[in-house]
Amino acid sequence: MPDPQRAINAAQTRNAIFLVLAVTAGATAVDRTRRVCGDLDALVRAVGARDVQGNLSCTIAFGLDGWDRLFGQPRPFALHPFRELRSGRRFAPSTPGDVLVHIRAERMDLCFELAAQIMAQLIASVTPVDETHGFRYFDDRDLTGFVDGTENPSGAESVAATIVGDEDETFAGGSYVMVQKYLHDLPSWQRLSTETQEGIIGRTKLDDIELDDASKPPFAHNALTTLVEGGIEIKILRYNMPFGKVSDGDSGTYFIGYARSLHPLETMLEKMVVGRPPGNYDRLLDFTHPVTGTNFFAPSVEFLAALATGQPVPTLPVATAAAQARAHADLGGALNIGNLKGVLQHE
Ligand code: HEM
Fold first, then answer.
1. Cβ density class 209-247: b for 16+ within 10 Å, e for less
2. Is residue 142 flagged as an active site residue?
3. Domain range holding 300?
4. Domain presence at residue 200
5. How far is the CA of 85 from the centre of ligand 1 (A)?
6. Domain count, the chain
7. 343 lies in a domain?
8. Which of 58, 291, 60, 257 is nearest to 148 (CA)?
9. Residue 335 lies in a domain
10. Which of 148, 168, 282, 286 is catalytic?
11. Is residue 346 part of a domain?
12. pLDDT tens by residue, the chain, 347 residues
C-alpha cells in the first residue's frame, strides 16, 4: 500500500498552524501549487533539521474544488464538499478551501518558519482563506478547561481508523480530513457549575475520567460522538487545538478530524447539531459555534512525490466500477461503516 503522510498518525504536539488556502485563477497558479505541494517534504526536512527534537511535521490535503483544479480525474471517491447543517439555533456552515496545510511541532518558531517558507513559495498562486495558530493549553486542555483528545485511537487502531485501504485502490494510503473553527462564549461557559460542565462533556474536569452511564446525560458530547455501527465502534483521530485572542473574545477550538471516510465525521457532527434522537443535541453548542467547515483529502506520499516531477496526475490505477462496488461492500461490511449512501458518490 502507498505510504500515508507521516504526520497523520504522529503524536500530538504543543503547537500547530492551520492554513486554509484558495488557489488563484490560471494555469500558472495551478502548476506552481502542484509543484510546491510535491516538494513539501524537502521543505519540512530542511526546517525540521534545525531542531529534530521539535518534531516538525506537515500534512497537506485538498478540498473537492481544489482537487478538480489541481489534479482533475480520478479523484478520491468519497471526497465531497462539507455538508452544511442547521437545527434550531445551531448552524454548521460550509466554507471554501482548496488546500489545507496542517503544520505541527513542539516549537511555534518551527511551525511559523515552515508556514512562512510555504507561503513564500505559493505567494502568487494562492489566497489565504484562514490562518489559525493553535497552542497547547496546560495538559492538552481545551479552553473550556477539559482535556481534549483522550479517547483518540493509537497505534494500529489509529491507522485503521484513518487510512484508506482497498476500498479505494487508487487513493489507498490517503485520509479524509474535516476542519471547523469554533468560537467559544467563555464567559457564559464559566458561569456554569463544574458539575453541569462535566455533564455536557461527559467526563470529569480535573482528572478527565469518563462519567458512568448512570450520571452521564444522553446529550453529553462524548455520548453523541461515540459511533457504533453493526456492533463496532467507528473511531476518528482528532488534533484539536485551542487558539485565540484575549482582547476581543475571539477564541475557541480549531477542530480537525482525520478518518478513513467522511462518514463517521459527518455522522458525529449531525448527532451533535441535530441530536440523536432529534432534539437531543450537544449542549456544548449552546456555548460555542463553528464559523468554518471544510472537507479535504490528504493523499499518499507517493501521490505527492509524483507532483514534484511536474506530471499532471500520478500514474496510479484508476478505480474501476468493480473496485468501487468492492469498496462499498468493504466499508459497509467488514468495517461496519453502515449507510454509505451518498458517501460513495460525488455531489
Ligand atoms: C468546540 C468543539 C469541540 C470541543 C471543545 C470538543 C471537546 C471534546 C472533549 C473535551 C472531549 C473529551 C475528551 C476526549 O476523549 O477527547 C471530546 C471527545 C470527542 N469528541 Fe469532541 N470537541 C469538539 C468538537 C467535536 C466534533 C465537531 C467532533 C466530530 C465531528 C468531535 C468528536 C469527538 C469524539 C469522537 C470524541 C471521543 C468520544 C469518546 O469516544 O469518548 N468533537 N471532545
1. eebeeeebeebbbbbbbebebeeeebbbbbbbbbbbeee
2. no
3. 6-330
4. yes
5. 18
6. 1
7. no
8. 257
9. no
10. 148
11. no
12. 899 999 999 999 999 999 999 999 999 999 999 999 999 999 999 999 999 999 999 999 999 999 999 999 999 999 999 999 999 999 999 999 999 999 999 999 999 999 999 999 999 999 999 999 999 999 999 999 999 999 999 999 999 999 999 999 999 999 999 999 999 999 999 999 999 999 999 999 999 999 999 999 999 999 999 999 999 999 999 999 999 999 987 999 999 999 999 999 999 999 999 999 999 999 999 999 999 999 999 999 999 999 988 765 544 444 444 444 444 444 433 333 333 332 333 33
